[in-house]
Amino acid sequence: MSKRPSELSNNQLSNLKSGLLESKEKIINAEIGKDKEAYSLNKDELADPVDEAAVNIQASQALRFRNREVMYLKKINKTLDKIDHEDFGCCNDCGCAIGFERLNARPTADMCITCKEESEMMEKSNQFHRKSKSLGKTIQEIGRR
Ligand SMILES: [Zn+2]
């Protein structure tokens, strides 16, 4: 048996893979369903302008939602690619095993929980620095007056 750095058993790995394939199929099937709906809406050429506006709003909301789905689909494909190349389950940051529990909850995770928390903390402190910087500037400006 080849030793994977992810420390996942073949069973765990195939479970995660089938879960990913399932979500992928769901997104693609939902896309096909939406296209059918769009087609039946287009057939109704007697729609009055108010309805048309409502349809446009719906379409733009659907598009925004679709963009998020497409992003997720890309992530799924990337993760499936990693599984095929036995490059799955390692943290992008520290190279440690991400762990089955985390992967089970979020199969597309590419950081271990420690690094993820660290990067979130960095993000927060960066926001804080930016805020305190602008606050410091304001205080200086007030002091000059
Ligand atoms: Zn890590």
Task: Set down the secondary structure blueprint.
Blueprint: H1 10-43, H2 49-84, H3 100-105, H4 113-144
Zinc ion (ZN) binds at residues 91, 93-94, 96, 111-112, 114-115.
Rg, rounded, reads 23 Å
Write the H/E string, N to C. HHHH
Please state roughly what percent of the residues sit in beta strands, choosing from under 5%, 5-15%, 15-25%, 25-35%, 35-45% or over 45%.
Answer: under 5%
Shape summary: flat
Helix content: over 70%
Cα separation of the termini: 73 Å
CATH architecture of the largest domain, by name, is Up-down Bundle
The distinct ligands, each listed once, are: zinc ion
Q: How many strands in all?
A: 0
The CATH topology of the largest domain:
Four Helix Bundle (Hemerythrin (Met), subunit A)
| Average pLDDT over all residues | 81
Biggest sheet record: none
Q: In CATH, what is the class of the largest domain?
A: Mainly Alpha
Q: Low-confidence stretches at least 5 residues in length (pLDDT < 50)?
A: none
Structural class by sheet pairing and helices: mainly alpha
In total, the number of domains comes to 2
CATH homologous superfamily designation of the largest domain = DksA, coiled-coil domain
Number of helices: 4
Give a verbal description of the structure.
With 145 residues, the chain is mainly α. It folds into 2 domains: 102 residues, Up-down Bundle (Four Helix Bundle (Hemerythrin (Met), subunit A)), CATH 1.20.120; 33 residues. Helix content is 74%, strand content 0%. It is built from 4 helices and no strands. Helix 1 runs antiparallel to helix 2. The chain is flat.
